[in-house]
Structures are given as C-alpha cells and as structure tokens.
Amino acid sequence: MEIPYTVKSRPDTGLYNAKLGIWLFLASEVMLFGGLFSAYVLLRVGAEPGMWPHGWLNVTLGTVNTLLLALSAITTLLAWAACKVRDFTKFKIFHACTILLALTFLGIKSYEYHDKLIHYELKLNNGTFADGHLVEKSADFDLVKKTGSVTLHGRIVTDEKDLMDLRAPAAQAAKLDEVTVPATDIKSMGNYGPRHNTFTAIYFTLTGLHALHIFGGTLVIFYFWAFGGAMWKTDPERFTNRIEVSGLFWHFVDLVWIFLFPVLYLT
Amino acid sequence: MSESEKPVSLSGYVRLCAVVFLVVLCTTSAMIATSFSHVGDGWTLKVALILAIAVVNAFLVAGYLMHLLSEKKLIYIVLAFTVFFFIGLMGLTVWATNGFPTGTISH
Q1: What is the pTM of this model?
Q2: Are both A147 and A133 inside the same structural domain?
Q3: Would you list the domain boundaries of chain B?
Q4: How far lies B98's CA from each of A224, B45, B90, in Å?
Q5: Which domain range does residue A133 map to?
Q6: 8 Å CB contact of B17 and A78
Q7: Which of A80-89, A160-169, A205-214 has the lowest mean pLDDT?
Q8: A190 — phi, psi (to 5°)?
Q9: Of chain B residues 7-66, which have a CB less than 8 A from chain A?
Q10: How far apart are CA A231 and CA A81, in angstroms?
C-alpha cells in the first residue's frame, strides 16, 4: 500500500504530511524545553543572594560548540540543497560533515561533564571549604572510616560564597595549589555533579536533554547518509523530503543551543 | 510557494550560508563581549542584552536555515499557538516568583 502525500502536498494543508508532522513535533519540543527553561528561571530567581554561580562553565568550549552547531546546521541545509539539485555525492559530503561536527560537539560536551565530575568541594570540620579538581585519593581513603587522604588541585576558602562567582576579582586572583586533606578533617565531600546544587542540577538536565537530542539526530542523519542510497535511486523526491524533515529537527536543536549557551555560560 | 518547492541553486545557498555564519560569528562575539563587559550595575541589564542578541541569532536560524520567512500559512498557525503557550508558560513562571503563599520561607 502506498503512503499518501509523502512527496506531493496535501490539497488542504499545502504541505506533505511529514513536514506538518515535524512542525507539530517541534511545537511540542518547544514546550518541553520551555518547561525546563522556566524551571531555570524559578531556581535562579529563588536563589539566595550571592549563591547563584557565575563563571563555572568554560566559555571557550561553549563558544566552540556554538560555532560547531552553527556549522552543522549549515551543512545540513546544504545537504538538502544538494538533494534538490540531484547531486548525491555532494549530499554525502555535506552530511558527513554534519555527522563529524555533531560527534565533535558531543566529545566536547563529554569533556565538560568529566571536568565537573572530577571537581570536588570538601566541607571541612573547621568550617572552611576545600575546592578543586581531584588529583588523587590515597589507597586507604574512606570517608566513613575516616582513613587516608584526598589531594585536590584548588584552594581553601572560608565562605562557600567565595566559590560562587569565579569571575570576581578575588577568585581570578586566587592561586591554585595542590591541597591534601586527611579524611579525619572532612565533614562531607561531593563532586560538581547534578546533586551539587540547583545550578548543576538544571545545567546537567538542560544540556543532557539537549545532548540526547543531538545524539538522536546524529543517528537519524547517519542512517540517511549510510543507507539512503536505495531510496535515492528509486524515489529521490521522497528522500529529499526526508532530508528536509531531519534538517528541520537539526536546526531546532541548534536553536535550543543558541539560548542554552548564553543562559548557562554567559549569564 | 514555500522554499522547499522553489527551484534551488546550490551556489546561492552556499552564499546565504556564508553570510549567516558570519553574522552568527559576530552575534556570538557580541554576546561574549557583553557578558564580560561592565554594562549596568548588576546582571539584569546584561542578561537582557545577551538574550536580545540571542534572539537575533535565533531569527537567522529559524528565518533563513529553516525557511520560516517563506513558509505555508498552516505552519505559521501552528507556531502562533506555540508562541502563545510558551509566553503563557514563561509569564506564569515570572508571575509565580512574586506570589509565594503566606508563610513561605524566602531568602
């Protein structure tokens, strides 16, 4: 049975079905991310003064990722344009670029996550805080049994608020060194994972959901890139429409990042 | 006629994409410069400025790369509903920030 309106437009909507379908899906996606953005607003506005982090994320890496996604959105559009002019070789080249750019984006994101997961904040018994990247835990380190020690590359501060604004002159001037703390001095310790505070929670949720979209989109684009040749030979118009629909999804993912980057990295 | 139904010139799209990328580069630089500048006393003005630049960026992607500047009426209707509900969602959120029930502990 032939599926109707995969190539030609429906007379009532003026669109082929998949195109209307993807726009309806994207509308639901706007509300999904909108809900999380509104959660971000609530958490940020409700934060105790001086306790909302600034400068915790690497702006250089965020900028590189912004440009990578912008470039991938462009190669996606050019892949569709190549299909429209019936140039399958160029389609393959442009979409290969899209896949490589997407994988680079995910690689950088993974590096950023790893950087947060090896960054620890230790609350010490004397009321101060040791903060920095984990260098090593001694072999016998056990926080419950209070044995061993942990070494961080970072600093010790007296007030947790000093760790919040890393763009503040005092934080910029702070000298980072190797700090070894015995387990007996540690009241509690935790990394900068999602449970660290509300900022890291919403950061991991928003960027994690976005990264899942990137991953899913990359899989679809890879499928068309690797196995699209058969449909291209039999029904190039329908294949071109599939590329347009996947491209619309990809541009939406780029759009979300356009707001995630300034909200999380720059403000 | 929507963009996908028009005759396509690959070289024309390459030129368009080059312009879009250059503008994205400029707007991204402007956002970063604003973020590190000393505009206003606090973060409020900075956030407003940075988000305004982000909207320009988003307009380029949606308008030119997603062809929204020349789409069918039905898609505009779908998006009009989306914008309405999105504004409602954000509006309710902002409204709620000043409407905590009596007795709520606030900082």
Answers
A1: 0.92
A2: yes
A3: 3-95
A4: 49, 20, 13
A5: 120-191
A6: yes
A7: A160-169
A8: -160, 150
A9: 8-10, 13-14, 17, 20-21, 24-25, 28, 31-32, 34-36, 43, 46-47, 50-51, 53-54, 57-58, 61-62, 65-66
A10: 17
